[in-house]
Known about the structure:
With 264 residues, the protein is an all-alpha fold. It is 62% helix and 0% strand. Helix 3 (41-49) packs across helix 5, helix 9 (167-178) runs antiparallel to helix 10 (186-201) and helix 11 packs antiparallel against helix 12 (223-244). 28% of the residues are buried.
Amino acid sequence: xxxxxxxxxxxxxxxxxxxxxxxxxxxxxxxxxxxxxxxxxxxxxxxxxxxxxxxxxxxxxxxxxxxxxxxxxxxxxxxxxxxxxxxxxxxxxxxxxxxxxxxxxxxxxxxxxxxxxxxxxxxxxxxxxxxxxxxxxxxxxxxxxxxxxxxxxxxxxxxxxxxxxxxxxxxxxxxxxxxxxxxxxxxxxxxxxxxxxxxxxxxxxxxxxxxxxxxxxxxxxxxxxxxxxxxxxxxxxxxxxxxxxxxxxxxxxxxxxxxxxxxx
Length: 264
């Protein structure tokens, strides 16, 4: 912007470059406690490299030191600035190499489940669903994981399987998600409703579909969605009534679910 303000051609115009901030956010944003704001270089140094700067000049002091140099001609005030920039370059080199290794080697190179999850999202954005699936499955089975990472990974895997029309795998992922999340939360409600659809239209298990729809209705707070769930229950009751006319052995709609979808 400053080059253009002075009506000069930027010195690096047309040359390839890489801004590491967007890749860093995609790979490590969820690893940092403060979200995107914590993807500052010094925060990544501490979290990923185990390196803490001591006596480093704060960035806000650098312009003042430069103007002091212009006024006095004393270069000593710039020495901490050069050291600050040197550390920036070294850290950027290490982080870039780490990011390249993650993308090149995949989940095997990750240090925890959150990096696996981030890789899966990157692969999905790049149109590589098989690699994304591998990364999500590696996340849920990673030796270094936590409940939140498992929840996010199962959710991402369930949605990916649904988009790929692998409905059986999607249903299994939704069930696993319910073991890692609160059924009353947004993801839990989505999982229960998705399973209700699956068992009604694909498994043809109307009893289980109705039980799931009832649970979804009990947890749902959005009135529009509650209305849709009521319509689903009416339709299921109509289907069940027709089936019961032909089958006396059909179990009651209150039969227990065959797998746990209780409170987290």
